[in-house]
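dumping this here before i forget
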Amino acid sequence: MHTLLLLNIPPALEDDLVDYLLALDCVGGFTSYKAMGHGEDTVLSIAEQVSGRRQRLQFEVIVDVEVVDQVTAGLTEQVGKDITYWQQSISGLGRT
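structure:
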């Protein structure tokens, strides 16, 4: 069964996360895009505090449920900190 693993990171970690994901045999590919983080956070810069948001990148990775722990296990050591992740069930998957 597949799951959608979402990784939300600071832009400074982009290259390291891309390298990490590409090196994993269990990851066949992924999508990334710019995102904005909103809400309380103690690590906001002054400019981010004024604007009420911070720049983030979001990665979407579809993997087998069984390998989620494998993918997330190396994030801190191989990529860095300040990574938020969650997973969502996928009811269908296909290509045309």
